[in-house]
């Protein structure tokens, strides 16, 4: 296979030998827009994607997390090991995913859900972005459990995708979440939970 690839690439290079180098690509597109209320727009768009969205005050966050978990009847929750301790409340057994001792696939699959923070949120698309940073954990942590409770601070919400990308490192493992996992690939029938949680709940703290 390697020899065949080298042959094909060699022929392509030979065919392009007399061609000029690629012209510069203009990048004068808009990178931001005048959004009056980015937090409100994010809440609206995320709800359009069938996420459950609630806005809470900082001092009420722990109580509201407890309310969410009680409403779902959650008893076993997974979380990254650096999740703030005061978020892990209620009559719940918390399993922490540690870098040196990650939770098994079976343990993640048997949990009632996962609680994380996020890296940034995008108002125009209603998208939450994870980058494996603080209070987020590794990608598998938020893809295997059926329920994802995500805490988004108001100062993490930006208007557009370019604004979000400016806050992110291209070398980080980025996960873009726009509502619960769903696909309509087969005869346009919506199927949820194929490649991530079927239930996404977002607590916007402001």
Automatic annotation (TrEMBL):
Gene3D superfamilies named in the record: NagB/RpiA/CoA transferase-like (3.40.50.10420)
Domain LUD, residue spans: 107-205
SUPFAM superfamilies, per the entry: NagB/RpiA/CoA transferase-like
Pfam families found in the cross-reference section: LUD_dom
InterPro entries from the UniProt entry: FTHF_cligase-like_sf (IPR024185), LUD_dom (IPR003741), NagB/RpiA_transferase-like (IPR037171)
Protein name per its UniProtKB record: LUD domain-containing protein
Organism of origin: Actinophytocola gossypii
